[in-house]
Structures are given as C-alpha cells and as structure tokens.
## 1
Amino acid sequence: MKIAILSRNPNLYSTRRLVEAGVQRGHEVQVIDTLRAYMNIASHKPQIHYRGRALEGFDAVIPRIGASVTFYGCAVLRQFEMMGVFPLNESVAISRSRDKLRSLQLLSRKGIGLPVTGFAHSPDDVPDLIRMVGGAPLVIKVLEGTQGIGVVLCETEKAAESVIEAFMGLKQDIMVQEYIQEAGGADIRCFVVGDKVIAAMKRQAKPGEFRSNLHRGGSASLIKITPEERSTAIRAARVMGLNVAGVDILRSNHGPLVMEVNSSPGLEGIESTTGKDIAGLVIEYLEKNACPGATRTRGKG
Ligand code: ADP
C-alpha cells in the first residue's frame, strides 16, 4: 500500500512510529505537512498538490491533525476522500469530535453514560445552570481547551459563579459539568481500533490535582477494564464515526462515564505503558479495510 500521513511534524513520536510500522510491514509511507498541501477544488478531477507536484496513487491516508489546524486539515483530508483515498478517520468524524459539546450531544442521544453537563450563553442564566447540573462541586471547561488547560474545579457555587462569569466576560464558550469525585483524580484511556479496545491505561493525577492529563504531571499505568467499560468505549467511537479513537472514561458510582472521544490519540503514552505495538495495529487496520472508494461519506457533509 501507499500510505500518506498528514502531520505537521515528522519528528513527533506518533508520526515516527506510524512511518516505522508502515515501512516494517512493507508499505510505502510519506509524511505530508498538512498546511503545505493545497488543492484544486474547481476541477472535475480533485487533486492535491504538494511542493509543486500532484499527489497520486495513495491507497490510504492517516490524519494526525492538531486541534489548531482542524479547519484546514479537514479540508485536505476531505480532498483525499474525494479522490477515493481511504482515510483512517473520516473528515466529518474528526470535525464532529473536535466540538466537545456536539460530541456530548451525539453521545447522549445514543444513551452513552456522560457526566451531567450544562451549557449557557447568558450570565443571567448561570445560577439556574448550576442548579441544573446538581450544584457544587463543579468542573468548568473551556470548549476549546486541550491537555487539561481551561479545566477548573470549583468547590463552591459562589466560586463556580465567579469563574463562569469571568470566562463569559472573556467571550470564552464553556461547559459546566458534574464533578465525579469518586474517580479519585484518575481516568481511563481506551484505545479503540475498529470494533476493539486494543489497549487501555489508567492515568492518575499527581497529588493535589484532579486533572489526570500526562501534560499536567499525571502518571500512567496498566489497567484491566471491565466489559462494560470496553463496550462503552467501542460504542462511543462508533457513535462518533471514528475507526480509531482514544476514549477517555471516568469510573463513577453509576458506571463508566465518557468524558471525551479523541480522534488523533497519541501513541507514546499508550505504547510505553502497555508495551504494545499500537502503530502496527493501526497499519494492520488499514491493510484490512482500505479499499478504494470505501469511505462512508466520500467527502460529503
Ligand atoms: P482536556 O480535553 O483538556 O484534557 P478533559 O475534559 O479531558 O480536558 O479534562 C482534563 C482532566 O480533568 C481529565 O483527564 C480528568 O482527569 C479531569 N476531569 C475532567 N472532567 C472531570 C469531571 N467531570 N469529574 C472529574 N474529573 C474530571
């Protein structure tokens, strides 16, 4: 197979590992800087050019599109789809997953367990919004945040009101969420490929912190997940339309709650924690599924 990897940086661990695994399994792999790919949209024959030449003959494309380039990255990916190239994850599914609120709405529609979450525009509605999600303690999240930045725990309703008002004053969209205290500062990252959880790890926040992000000093360890957690992760990825996803789950007293479904899950933490060849399993998925024109949406929508 000829595989394209859309990535801004060939030196990132995940990109490097995907190249390595692809080559090891006998494929031709090219890393394409997402922002340097350009397209001819008017043409009947959709094309992508890169450094002065047309990209041709690809069987599959692996999008590793960072949050800050979602818009342009999804346009490039959509162009690949229109050319009949099989995407590991489709552009529509990636756009969907990048909108935290839209993702939660889609997941809730399918009955997947979620922390109770509220969203409002006007500061006048804040007191009732807080009541709606069950009062303090509360977690407030900036919608565009990543790696735990913009996620705040408010122990009292007064604190929550002030923080919400401050974010609203800064014109930041936020959501307000029930705090899952019993999770004990831990969450579970389930790495889904196709209809399987191929690896899982527990991330534990450092003492005095409730955010378990590795970027915030959290530590990762092996964990055995329950059948319910496994099926929740698989269903969440399917609802989002993602073939490959990192599903973050909180263990609550009333079962697994999905916090987020990530469409470009990192490989470093999960490979080093589990010792598994995740990159190889991702390439294997493409070997089994990438046939020309098999894209569900072919760039529509
Ligand atoms: P980001 O996408 O920026 O990583 P998250 O929504 O994943 O933001 O939150 C960061 C971390 O904060 C999570 O990994 C989890 O440990 C903790 N956390 C988030 N929401 C809750 C919640 N409702 N209850 C308990 N802990 C939470």
Note: Residues 182-286 form a domain with the D-amino Acid Aminotransferase; Chain A, domain 1 fold (CATH 3.30.470.20).
## 2
Amino acid sequence: MKKVVSVVSMLGFVLPAFAIEFVTIGTGGVTGTYYPTGGAVCRLVNKYKKESKVRCGVESTGGSVYNINNIKSEELDLGMAQSDVVYQAYQGTGKFEGKPYKNLRSVMAIYPEIVTFVASQRSGIRKIEDVKGRKINLDNFGSGTRATSKILLKEYGIVEDDLKLAGSLRASEAPDALRDQKIDGYFFIVGHPAANLKDAANSTPIRIVPIVGKKVDGLIKKYPYYAKGVIAGGLYKGISQDVESFGVKAVLVSSTNTSEHAVYTITKAILDNFDSFKKLHPAYSKITKKSLLEGLSAPLHDGAKKYYKEQGLL
Ligand code: GLU
C-alpha cells in the first residue's frame, strides 16, 4: 500500500524532509523462490533508505495472479509474477480475458522459473499423461502455477474432471500431502533450488517428471513467453539427473501508479549491487544485467527505464 509517512519530531513539528515512501512487494508462499527474492530486493533497497527515503517490505501472498490483481487495486506497489501471467494480464487474455491491464509495468525479469511436476515414486507417474484419474494438486487459486498448469494440461487434452482430485492446496502444504498420500503429485512453477522441493524430497521418495515432447514443443511455438528449461540434477535428494521441462521468467512488476522514484531506487539498488544480489539466492547464479531485460511482457516502468538508460543497458 502506498503510504507517505511524515515523521513528527519530538516538538510535534512535521518534518517533511523525513517523508518516507513505503513500498510493499507481493511475493508467494514462504517455501517458494518469490518470497526470498522479495527479501533480497528489499534488503538492498533498505540499505539506502536514509538517502532514498524509500523503505521496502515484503508480503507472502498466493502468487502471480494475486499479485497482479492487488497491484491493480493498489493494495501492493510491486509484485513477483510469471512472465506468461504478466503477458496475459497486459493483453487481456487467459485468466484476464477481456480485462487488459494496460497500467501494468515491468521492472526486471529476474530469473527463470521451471514448470515442475513432483510425483511420489509410489504413484508410478512418469509422464504428464499419467495424471489422468489421479489426485493432483494444481496449487492455490491466485497462483501462476495453477493458471499455467491448467494451460499445460489442456494442451494434453486433460481437464480438471479427468483428475480424481484437482487440489488447491498451497505449494507449502503439498510436500506433506504427498508424503501422506493425499495427493499423487503436484505442480509448482518455481526457480530452483526451492525449499519446497527440498521438503518434498526429504520427506518421501519423489520423482520430478520430465515435461517433454510434441505437446510442449507446440506450446513453446505458440506462445512467445515459454522456453525450454532444465531442473539441474543434484539439487534435491534422490534426483541426480537433469530433468527437462519448460519455463518462464520470474518478473518484478509494478504499475504506472508506483512512483518513478521508488522504482528507480529499487532498480538502482539491485544493479549497483549486482554481484552481492546474485549471491543472495542460488536461482540467480546464471543471471546477467542484460538478462534482466529479457522476457518482459509488459512495458518497462519509467523509473526502471531511467536507470537502465543511465547505465547504457537500453
Ligand atoms: N510461480 C509461482 C506462482 O506464481 C510462485 C513461485 C514462488 O513462490 O517462487 O504461483
């Protein structure tokens, strides 16, 4: 929520010079990668709060769709979202059919997120087609995971009614549900490594199911925001080989209502400290300053543009 707070001195005078702009970043569940990413961004931004007068805070939320909807209603100033969901929101397609959100703005496309399907080994699920008639968690309403998993399943000709259960647990609840056999598998679209998958792999034997073949190739061809991706082997207990899938980018977004100063400050804080930023999460290991501008599906925010221009990145 946008709040400008004037600090009242001990004498009771309002000191406008102390006016602080609070910005809140909507993220995702606490075992995902959005939440620590919001934390990493705010940590760098708050280093400069004295000079910049911008103070950054993080909120754990239901994910991409929730974040965009709440930026629109001005409950959030910024949020993390999947590039496909950003595209759909800006263009008014998919979940946002007929409601294009033209004030949505990109700040940076931070890291790749991979469509991940985790199955218990005992379920015997080895490919996406095997989910028919099984208990599958699609993630909570408002998540990008749920929106994109449904698009993927549709490509395979699978609808919710073809599943024994189309669950709406939050990603953080899925590992326990998998261990307790309440579900046979779950989707999570996330940057790796994620605490969520560590939880799953440490509590029950899992398989990460490859998402490959003609159907996915078709999706990638059809939509500009999907690309092939790999979950590297060795990140999780029992998963030693790379697993092929496809993915999107995790994008920090805001709106034309978010101040140019705040967005400029955030962009600058990350880019001026890029090497330290990259060390804050292993999902950032391969990112570059240039890659931050790849996979944006809504126009850049003026505050971000200003800083990229100053740096010769645009
Ligand atoms: N991509 C997921 C979503 O929008 C969230 C991933 C995360 O929390 O890191 O639902």
Note: Confidence is low (pLDDT under 50) at residues 4-9.
